[in-house]
Amino acid sequence: MTTATDKGNVLCYKGSNFFRQRLVLSILSGKPIRITHIRVLEDEPGLKEFEVNLIRLLDKITNGSVIELNETGTAVYFQPGLLYGGTIQHECSTQRGIGYYLEALVMLGLFCKQPLNATLQGVTNNNIDPSADLIRTSMLSTLKKFFLDDEGLDIKISKRGLLPLGGGEVIFKCPIRKHLRPVNLLDSGMVKRIRGTAFALRISPAIANRIVDKAKGVLLNFLPDIYINTDQCRGKQSGKSPGFGIHLTAETTNGVIYSSEQVSNVVSNGEDPSVPEDVGVAAAQRLLHEIYLGGVTDSTSQAVVILCMALGQQDVSKFVTGPLSENAIGILRHLKEFFGITFKLEYYESDESLKGTGSQKVLLTCVGLGYTNISKRTI
Q: pTM for the whole thing?
């Protein structure tokens, strides 16, 4: 990853990788960025529709942002404004799920001037981005570890929507906090129960029951305490496209959440039609893989953990995760470039030899920046 800083203190990047991370960190750090050579060798060069849509969303929650695009869309200049927040409504691109946009809002929401109340419309579940269900169960539960009072932090799915037409709606509410506290989380505990939700939109409700039966068939070999309910969406709540899927969570004795999900294929895109039983088995096996990877968070929330550790108070934070995801490695590199902060990474060995080992764990250690929300007034 090549980085250059020009005379105007602008961070310059090439390519479209980690586009969302760079915009989020640009807003938090106040440093302008310039990204060039965006998909210049592809048949359709330049920014995709969903990336332009993300810039519009970030523009809505900030005041005074300056955005410049060249004619072909292969270069963008972004000078961040002040994080304002407030009540916004946004129509997301159906090329990506609502989770793509929600992840950015989760990272920014705590540092706004006004509590964030965002209504996002689009695709709630797909097989590329984390769904609103997964962000609510996994990412928000991880985020709550970094501040004491979590009142007002919530995600509500008022409508579900699948590809290709979407039609879903998610309401995200986030309070504001002055700063984040340091954490010392090393022990994930043992898995004690598994919960889940299966949904079938604009098709027979019996499909959801078939998904549940197969998923439980796999998981009962691992644990007896399993309950998966079915979400019967009707009318406008079921979006504009037919489909089905399932979201599973495993909770440990220490309150750690591991999540997985699987959604049916989109037949209109030329994909083979999904079988409900296959969807249930795939989601169950993915959940077992997340449990095997272990750590005090699942792989989806690693980037949020790393960001919160870096922005925490000026004290040592320690956090154990499973093998780092590509997203987590990317944010570690970008934090050094935007904030000059580095992490100490080392293998973590648990003292208790009786526990199932799972995969190799990583111990993340860093001293926080002491990042403060200057907009948050204190009495």
A: 0.93
